Amino acid sequence: DCALDDAVKLKDLNAFIKLTPELALHQAKESALRYHEKQQKGPLDGVTVAVKDNFCTKGITTTCASKMLQDFVPPYNATVYERLVNAGAVLIGKTNMDQFAMGSGTVDSIFGPTKNVWSKSLENNDWCIAGGSSGGSAIAVASGICYAGIGSDTGGSTRNPAAYCGVVGLKPTYGLVSRHGLIPLVNSMDVPGIFARSTSDCVDILNAIAGPDRLDSTTISKPYHPIALPEPEQIDLSKIRIGIPKEYHCTGLSPEVLETWAKIADILEDGGAMVKQVSLPHTPSSIYVYSILNQCEVASNMARYDGIEYGHRADDDRSTEDLYAKTRAEGFNSVVKNRILSGNYFLLRENYNKYFEKALRVRRLIANDFQNVFENVNADENVDILLTPTTLTDAPLYKDFISLSNRDQCAVQDYCTQPANMAGIPALSLPIRLSQQGLPIGLQLMANVLNEQLLLTVTRWIE
Ligand code: GLN
Asked: 133 CB less than 6 Å from ligand 1?
């Protein structure tokens, strides 16, 4: 009840597209009843969660913050949501996002932008963005409305808002968590993400949702071993090697972020870890490769929205062709339309090798860079964890952010985050506040594929 009251008071933040109070009460009663009758305790009994509005929820609208899906009510549940509910969690609402998860601000939603709870004022465009595209879930957790949030992460959409809102944001290994029922953006990079206020809350959620799913053939078939976090005082950093990739010292990095990054590296070294500089030489190319691959997959994924089977249908009966065209013209915003056009251009027969194929090759080089630092044949060269900033600055003001085009926004916002999606490795944003003043800053930790246990253990030590 309390969480829902708060949600109503905090409605100015615009974190939710839909609140689900009746469902929340029903789910809470169900888990209480289950306990009463069968003495069966769910690992998340009564834990309030908010789910990004691109995860299908049976009987509850799933809009992707777009006109195209404004009235879409899925007939099935995303696996992530189903597993949360089976573990006893309670859905308090579906959260705001950039349309079809294309963006990094949660400013491009037909329901209006989400405002950052850390803003000095929520008036007169003087407020900060929440980051995106999963800004609604990040704010739902940061403002104390609920314990955990679910987002998606294709190029940084969980870690970016986690950094700006001062919460933990985890992008697990690609394939560790099912994408079934997550409306796709870039199938080869999309991963469900987790927002929580602490590493241990994040682990509880991950343990409930991870593992193979026969409804998603890209899930890793190996059984999932739940993560057990050691107590902070039992964590021994003496065998841990931390890499600081020099390519992340890039233009636009603010002095505060640089200071925070250096400070945490020093703290890890003082704690016994070996900290050394490493190189991921293809990092600067990553943003271009991401942009090409993203737009090509978008061009293909968005083809399903034609006004025939589901979603928005324009009022046009001149011809099927006209109906498609009008439906798509009305249903998509300009960001989506631009990506469809560019993607189709890159995929033209005469351009295919020049763009798409080349981008795939460079993607391999980017993934190899990570492999070289985690699994080098010369074992002395290896590191276990990479430490970088999550974003170049703290949360920008809305008015400054929207003065840039979506492409320029992403080029800055995704710089540090999207390489991890190229390689499918796990990455986490940890909130750091060196002083009580100012906005939160996020540092990113990355580990080798399926090394969530180590990633979360080191994070817990820092926390
Ligand atoms: N900003 C990136 C984009 O717009 C990342 C989005 C995401 O991770 N969903 O594509």
From this structure: yes
